[in-house]
Structure formats: structure tokens, C-alpha cells
Amino acid sequence: MNTKHTLIAARQGLSLLAEHETNALGDHLQALNRRLVVARKARSLGELLRDQIDLLPDTRARLNRDHDRRRQLLSGLSQELRRSVSR
Asked: Considering the entire predicted model, what is its pTM?
């Protein structure tokens, strides 16, 4: 077992995960801003609700992409750590 290699692998994997989460948070804030812009343009409660409901598929797709990428990163980190521990 190479402790140095394991620590390097862990640090790299966690750095990638942190970068992804930071980017995802930025994307969520941009989406929130878009929702606020759309909400401000609504002329009635019905229009507000309809516009916000129209944005749901994009939100769902973004959340799914984030989740899939997070799962890939965690899987890769797990595999790399197992490999480095077994050396």
C-alpha cells in the first residue's frame, strides 16, 4: 500500500468533486436569476405560475446532469482509492 499515492488520489478526486459542486452552485444561481427575471415579467398570478412551470423541465434536467456527474466523480474516486490501496 502506497500511502502517498492514496493521499494524492484522494486529494485529486476531492478537488474534482469540489470544483463540480462549485460549478453546479453557480449554475443553480444563474437558473434562479432566470426564474426571477421571468417572474418579474409576469402580468398575473396565472402567467407567473405557467412561466415557472414551463421552467421545471430545465431544472429537472440540470439537477439530473449534476447528480450523474457527481456519481461519476465519486465512482472514479472510489475506484482510484481502491487501486491505490491494493498496490
From this structure: 0.78
